[in-house]
Amino acid sequence: MTAGRDSVRAWAAEARHIAVLTGAGVSAESGVPTFRDALTGLWAQFDPQELATESAYRAHPERVWDWYAHRRTMLAKALPNAGHLALARFGQTHPDRLTLVTQNVDGLHQGAGQPETIALHGSLMEDRWLDAPRACCNSQPPQEGRPPVCATCGNLRRPGVVWFGENLPPAALAAAEAGVARCDVMLVVGTSGQVYPAAGLAFAAHQQGARVVVINPETTELDRIADVCLREPSAICLPFLLE
Ligand code: BJW
Fold it and tell me: Where does NAD(+) bind (predicted)?
């Protein structure tokens, strides 16, 4: 693997279509914690099975709702960083040449000016009904509470994110797959590549012959299919590659 950041910059400039898959690391420089970083990642402090599954929510709705409420509060202070902004500027300048797919639920790509971002794992800033809403759920606003509940049937609001064991939004996954199918360069940025089906998008790009570039200060599960691994923070690397 001899190509470096200058080669990748040239590939990006020449590419017909670039697919980008981002993960939590792209927001690390905005102060948003990742999941799996050994010291600072959310899963270093919390057990995902006790927080990021539907069964955990049904068992302990207050605990899980509070954890998400805390993360929402933290996120309210976060701003897009130079990596988000570089991607957004590229998308604005070359709207037909970019498919931006994120696993992040923080809305920072959209906030940077890329509203077409495909959000595979939902949004931390939204919520929805846990069970299919009945007429009573929609005819009156949910009570204030933690979590909000329909006063008539007891249905709960839940965070609008995708938990383990849940299907990804079908339209988002289909749009991501279609964008990847068009790409000749794929940037895999700030993700450990451990979570599927998102990580499978990089394998699809590799199998169709696209150049795959991993941007991450650490090693990842996807390095073995990468043409190049750039061991840099994304807020430094992406502006160099795309501007
Ligand atoms: C930097 C940096 C800087 C730091 N610059 N980089 C196939 C094989 C095996 C398992 C499965 C499979 N298919 C499905 C599964 C099961 C499961 C899964 O993948 N499990 C694996 C973990 C083993 N997948 C699912 O359950 C998915 N659903 C599904 O497949 O449905 C079908 C189904 C139905 C029924 C039964 C089974 C299957 C859903 C996955 C949902 C993931 N949800 C979460 C939580 C969202 C809500 C919340 O926020 O609380 O999504 S988990 C968490 O991981 C979050 C993330 O989006 C996701 C990915 O994490 P990410 O972004 O990669 O973060 P990290 O922390 O892992 O990595 C950060 C990286 O950044 C690191 O590498 C750093 O080095 C780097 N970094 N600073 C650049 N400055």
Answer: 103-106, 190-192, 216-218, 234
Using the mean position of ligand 1's atoms as its centre, give its distance from the Cα of residue 180 in Å: 18
pTM beyond 0.90, yes or no: yes
Measured by CA distance, the residue closest to atom 15 of ligand 1 is 196
Task: Assign 3-class secondary structure to the chain.
Answer: CCCCHHHHHHHHHHCCCEEEEECHHHHHHHCCCCCCCCCCCHHHHCCHHHCCCHHHHHHCHHHHHHHHHHHHHHHCCCCCCHHHHHHHHHHHHCCCCEEEEECCCCCHHHHHCCCCCEECCEEEEEEEECCCCCHHHHHCCCCCCCCCECCCCCCEEEEEECCCCCCCCHHHHHHHHHHHHHCCEEEEECCCCCCCCHHHHHHHHHHCCCEEEEECCCCCCCHHHCCEEECCCHHHHHHHHHC
Give the chain's domains with CATH numbers.
1-32+79-121+167-243 (3.40.50.1220)
Pocket test residue of 66, 177, 196 for ligand 1, highest count of atoms within 8 A of CB: 196
pLDDT tens column, 71-92: 999 999 999 999 999 999 999 9
Give the binding-site residues of ligand 1, using a 6 Å CB cut-off: 23-25, 28-29, 34-37, 41, 52, 103, 105, 121, 161-167, 190-192, 194-197, 216-218, 220, 233-234
Catalytic residues: 121
